[in-house]
Amino acid sequence: MTDATNSPSTGPMLSADGTPLKKSLQIALRRQKLRALALVAPLLLFVLISFIAPIADMLFRSVENEIVSETIPRTVIALEQWDYEDGNAAAPSDDVYAALYVDLSEAEEFKTHTRLGSRLNYETTGMSSLLRKTGRGIGRMDTDEYTKQFEALDPKWEDPAVWVAMMQSPGVAEILPETASAWQSWQRIVANKNDVLAEEQPEDFIYTMLYRDLIAQPASAVAAYSGSGAEMLQTADSAVDGFEAISLREQFLDIDEDWADAQIWGTIKAFSSPYTAGYFLSSVDLQLTPAGVEAQPENQQIYMLLFGRTMFMSMVIMGSCILLGYPIAYLLSNLPLRTSNLLLILVLLPFWTSLLVRTSAWKVLLQQQGVINDILVWLGLVGDGDRLVMINNQFGTIVAMTHILLPFMILPLYSVMKTIPPSYVRAAKSLGATNWTAFWRVYFPQSVPGIGAGSILVFILSIGYYITPELVGGTTGTFISNRIAYHISSSLNWGLAAALGTILLAVVLLLYWVYDRIVGIDNVSLG
Amino acid sequence: MSKYTKPAVDLVRFVLPLMALAGAAMGFLVGTANGVSLLGAILGVICGVVLAWVLASFVPSTRTGILAATALFAIAGLMIAGPAGIVGGVIVGFVLSWLSYWLFTGSYRAGTPIYATPGQVLWHNTFKFICGAIFFFLIAPILTIIPLSFNAENFFTFTPAMLSFDPEGYSLKHYRDFFTNPDWQQALKNSVQIAPAATLISVSLGTLAAIGLSQPHVPFRRAIMAILISPMIVPLIISAAGMYFFYSRIGLQGTYVGVVLAHAALGIPFVIITVTATLVGFDKSLTRAAANMGADPVTTFFRVQMPLILPGVISGGLFAFITSFDEVVVVLFVGSAGQKTLPWQMFTGLREQISPTILAVATILVVISIMLLTVVELLRRRSERLRGLSPG
């Protein structure tokens, strides 16, 4: 094969400025793409920040659980050694109580223990009051015995400056690990009070940790330490064996007997990881217990019921929209354009009317002293005493939402039916089909895409509805969305609200994907 | 006006029995309301048959016949039940006389081919009746609240005074309340401040993006489209929850800016959809011609492209405006008491059943939506005309 490309006559085609045409076209195309992207970019950025980020935040919140490991980090670590066993589970060792003592001493200062309490209360009732009570009692424990005994041994232990010097010397963290850890908490407490570290005598929990460290360390390790306060430490180390010991476990039990309950500790351990499936389990009527995943008690199982009811009522609404929408769409598509345009206004007017106007109209019509009941009583069909209850139940929600969503069924159906040629039905009839056969075998199958599009649209819209069920649904006609709103604004269990919302979002996206498959995203029509 | 011809319909065997039935039904309703069901039905049968016979035999002009019968029944109603009876009389007289002409002149066969069997004619008319009932279901609730908003009492239903057309039964006090009550005025002010701001953001950014998306080569077109349309697909309660969580993290929860941003995000899909649809019919060679004659891209946009796609932009803007103006779920969570909008005020009012002022507001909103609907419809027609899609 000859190397023909080198000869100028058959070489790559060049554009006016001498660059190869292919390359210059590529540059032009890239420029075009960039210009298009630059036009889209501001809006994309806006939607990402104002809409997608909130959705992502909600997804994150449905699994996020950092509050436990942030509020009581030492306890969480100490509990790793402890295993909950069902039945005769024993409460954890004194180490765990010591860790909790330090953690809660700090949390009490920052008042984070109440937030932790409300978080754990969603899982085990009583946790909130237990933690509040413990927070109040933690400063009044008998651990001041340790403080007194250290002070009796050497008055210098009272001096904050000595403590500061000692805790800053290298090597002290190795021989006094718990004290060093507690000292960090103490530093944060002092900083929070805007006090000076070297002027505040440490609280009892520091002395308690010092006692625990000195008991735990062999004398040789303490003797090897040579930093600030080494002498004091060695004296103390030889004396601590004679100290009166205070059981922290007993101290906690004095505040509340529940601290001996393995169930409490099991709950803390089960929810100690920074991410939890607990909210999702709660949304499907399960719960994460110390012993594993279990069903919620019978009387607290409401979410599956609510999901089921939401699905069922959306189905009913979708069904009644098909029943009512099909004749209208058929009529509109078979009338002359002028007449059908006029009648279409009757469909578009409700579509354009405010949702609240329509809901309030139904509230006015359906209530017991409302227009429909008045007419029925006037006609004598219903006695004045037993007026029909048509609102604040499922009936009211279904009627009002069918009315509100009906245009969303009629418009797609109409746009599909307009394209069905009337000659097919005529051909079927001329071949001997009865009216019914011609409709059912020829016309109806061609209108199925419209039914599919309208149904999915109505279904997607109805399972996420909030306002109408809230206003006319009472207690039996509410949807899962009302529960989400309740958890956001009343019970403040945001994690559970986020998990319920995530499940709902997943269902909607799945349906939307189906919709896209059947109808196509670009065919969304606005009437 | 239909010309009277020799009856093609059997008067005795077809029209009179049906009219007897219709008269019986009417008489039964009127009788039940007055506590004498059976008597009413019997009188109704007589009225129906006599009226049909008289009209069919002696009054060939449809219009004259209907007017005369309506007037007759109205006078009868007035004599029996006072002013309230006029309405009942007018309705009964009109329906019965119209029905007898409809049956007698053969208009009931109008929509069906000449060869249709009686069964087919019956089905055709039943179908029309069903459709009428569904249209009634669609429109009646909205129309009912309009007279109720002029109620002189604080009731959500028609009072006897209203039914007897007593001027005392009607008043503008709920409208007066709406225009003087500081709560409602504050809500109106907030709505009027939030909706235009949100619309401005969604229209300006959305139009740019729609123009970008309609270019021939856009990378990740489907993914971008999916993201931009998503505020319309995600249920409002989920958007509201997410925005509440996220906006309270960044300090926008409970602020005017937060509500405007949220509403702008919700309005964007509508702008994108309408403007993209308008751009489908846009002739690209026009911009090229403009560029060829020396116009820079900005001039081309404002002098050539913008006027042509303006109907789409405005109707997208109206959609975005009504979305924000009607929106209640998101503002309920993202806003605080200071951003209480009109729908929010209505929502709390409906929950607590405070006063029929809600109905006055609803009536005003219905009027506004009728105006918007008209504007959008006119714009759509104009846009189709500009693009040559329809001859009108």
TrEMBL record, chain A:
It is found in: Cell membrane. The keyword Membrane applies. It is a multi-pass membrane protein. The chain crosses the membrane at residues 36-56, 311-332, 339-357, 395-416, 448-467, 494-515. The keyword Glycoprotein does not apply. Its main location: membrane. InterPro entries: MetI-like, MetI-like_sf. Pfam families: BPD_transp_1. Keywords: Cell membrane, Membrane, Transmembrane, Transmembrane helix, Transport. Belongs to the binding-protein-dependent transport system permease family. CysTW subfamily. This is ABC transporter permease subunit. It comes from Hoeflea alexandrii.
TrEMBL record, chain B:
PROSITE patterns: ABC_TM1. Its main location: membrane. Keywords: Cell inner membrane, Cell membrane, Membrane, Transmembrane, Transmembrane helix, Transport. It comes from the Bacteria. CDD domains: TM_PBP2. It is a multi-pass membrane protein. The chain crosses the membrane at residues 12-30, 36-59, 66-84, 90-108, 129-150, 194-213, 225-247, 259-282, 308-334, 354-379. Residues 188-376 form the ABC transmembrane type-1 domain. It holds the Pfam family BPD_transp_1. Coiled coil: none annotated. Belongs to the binding-protein-dependent transport system permease family. This is ABC transporter permease subunit.
